TrEMBL record:
Pfam families assigned to the protein according to its UniProt record, in alphabetical order: NTP_transf_3
Lineage: Bacteria, Bacillati, Actinomycetota, Actinomycetes, Micrococcales
Domain of life: Bacteria
Organism: Microbacterium ginsengisoli
InterPro entries with a match to the protein in the record: MobA-like_NTP_Trfase, Nucleotide-diphossugar_trans
The MobA-like NTP transferase domain, residue ranges: 6-168
This protein's name: MobA-like NTP transferase domain-containing protein
Single GO term (MF): nucleotidyltransferase activity
Amino acid sequence: MGAPCGIVLAAGAGTRYGGPKALAADADGTPWLDRAVALLAASGCDPVLVTVGAAAAEVARRIPAPGRAVLVPDWNDGLSASVRSALDAAAATGAELAVIVPVDTPTLPAAAVARVLGAAAEAAASALVQATVAGAPSHPVLIGRDHWAEVAATVAGDRGAGPYLAAHGATFVACDDLWDGRDIDERPAP
């Protein structure tokens, strides 16, 4: 089995955040986009695809190596558009697995990616794995190639792959001991 494809979902406008989260940075100035691409690359993902939509040109310019931009022309349709575009782009690679993380999870640790990848080792292209924190679905999510077309066909609006994963017997991997599972939807108060 070859390297998994890493996917960073980063096409949204970040309405509640006040701007595209793909352009956000930690208090120390580290861009969230850099963190996400580095996390997936360090976890063995090749290629690392980054969905771009809102502020596409600016976000694409900021994608660090080895990340590659995937344009999401219908990004205004919600999360589902990013998932569809990313899985379509992943299908053009030789990868059997796609590891998906949203850009707004800058504290997601490499150990969570490793744990999810470890749970998929035997299943490869048929794998469906999702991290959980406190029993709730979290990130990363791993989807085997056998499911890409069907996931892309079933996502809608701001609903991602969660319902598909639940309906198709995904393996849920507890990551409570690794991180709090939070994504960042709003800017911290000054």
